[in-house]
TrEMBL record:
Domain Histidine kinase: 128-227
Molecular function terms from GO: protein histidine kinase activity
PANTHER family: SENSOR HISTIDINE KINASE TRCS, SENSOR HISTIDINE KINASE YKOH
Catalytic activity: ATP + protein L-histidine = ADP + protein N-phospho-L-histidine
The protein's name in its UniProt record: histidine kinase
Coiled coil: none
């Protein structure tokens, strides 16, 4: 019998099956359309006040996000890279939350204990996000409706072990041996394409994935030491950001009250119900949406800019690299946006999103201004 590690290596070296001409180009075009759809939905969501209609818009947003993920899965099955890798390492907890955001039933997923010193190397971030998203999607689809899915991560020697567990009936135990063989040596079968994608992504980086039974189904993802780096010191504690000392006034404190507590001392002014924060030339807004519970951190990047096909393509490319945020065009302006989950709000995540956005807005306005013209948002009052 060939050892598992050797089999995984052979899988990485094995060339993909021939792909019909135009399939890759079609998947890239479809992904670009999904990016445009997500941007349009962002614009509509921004102006919507009715909570029921907003919930429906979020459902459409999730469908568009899944469409984009399926396009990227098609590129993986075709043996193509979905896009350039990230430029920077990313903390493991942010990688897991990015995977959570790609799943339709994201509100059933709890990211619990995660070693906050662990980070994923930039070259593997996007693939690990997609791998985790596929496993989380399986966990929500094949477990009992309404049950919880938990995610934990810890060190395993020099490696890191990510565990995804559901508490429902899950996959029958008799199916697990065949599924685990598929995860080591995938064959594209119509009813298991999600796991084939997981196997392909894992094979690229020497990641080991194992399914087993406990109270429900458990997926174990072993990230090898070569993919791991040390997470930067808590970046939300640097500069002028205060040390997070968030304690809700009551267990059921309203989300907007929790957000105000976290951002105390940083709010510059309010406009249309949004909390405005100034940082250098950037203006960052924080908006609370109660249904579903979500906090949006966003900033105008470039104004007086026409929506063109090259602009949409560029925004889609940059969004693809961001992982935890997106760029879109609305009201003659390019916006950058980062969502923060409102359910079990974490102060550190909100403060980090604010800091990421302030740096992002300053970096992107120069880059996009050189390519497409328009006006830098910080120059409007000058």
């Amino acid at each position: 019998m060939i050892p598992v590690r050797v089999t995984a290596l052979l899988q990485r070296l094995r060339p993909p099956a021939p792909v019909a001409p135009g399939i890759i180009d079609l998947a890239l075009r479809s992904r670009a359309l999904a990016d445009r759809m997500i941007g349009a939905l962002d614009r509509i969501e921004r102006d919507e006040e009715d909570p029921d209609r907003l919930a429906q818009l979020f459902e459409l947003d999730q469908l568009a996000t899944r469409m984009r993920r399926y396009d990227e899965n098609l590129l993986t099955l075709a043996g193509a890279e979905p896009g350039p890798p990230r430029r920077a390492d990313t903390s493991l907890v942010d990688v897991l939350r990015a995977g959570q955001s790609e799943v339709e039933q994201y509100d059933r997923i709890d990211v619990e204990t995660v070693d906050d010193e662990l980070a994923v190397a930039a070259v593997a971030v996007h693939d690990v996000v997609r791998l985790v998203a596929e496993l989380l999607d399986n966990a929500t689809v094949f477990s009992e409706k309404g049950s919880r899915v938990t995610v934990t991560a810890r060190r395993e020697g020099a490696d890191a072990l990510v565990t995804i567990a559901d508490s429902g009936a899950g996959i029958p135990a008799g199916d697990l041996p065949g599924l685990n063989r598929l995860l080591v040596d995938p064959a594209a079968t119509a009813d298991r394409l999600g796991l084939v994608v997981v196997a392909r992504l894992a094979g690229r980086h020497g990641i080991r994935v194992l399914l087993r039974r406990d109270e429900g189904t458990v997926a174990e993802v072993l990230l090898p030491a070569g993919l791991l780096t040390r997470a930067p010191e808590a970046t939300w504690l640097t500069g002028d950001l205060p040390t997070p000392r968030y304690v809700p006034k009551a267990p059921d404190a309203p989300l907007d009250e929790q957000v105000r507590t976290v951002l105390a001392g940083r709010i510059d002014h309010e406009t249309d119900g949004d909390l405005a924060i100034r940082a250098g030339s950037a203006v960052v807004y924080v908006r609370v949406k109660q249904s579903p519970p979500l906090v949006e951190v966003f900033s105008p990047v470039l104004t007086a800019i026409e929506p063109t096909e090259p602009l949409y393509a560029r925004l889609g490319e940059l969004t693809h690299r961001m992982q935890i945020g997106r760029l879109y065009h609305a009201e003659d302006t390019v916006w950058a946006s980062v969502p923060v989950f409102g359910r079990n709000l974490q102060a550190a995540h909100l403060l980090l999103a604010v800091q990421v956005m302030t740096g992002l807005a300053d970096e992107l306005d120069d880059r996009l201004h050189e390519e497409f013209g328009g006006k830098r948002y910080g120059d409007r009052e000058g």
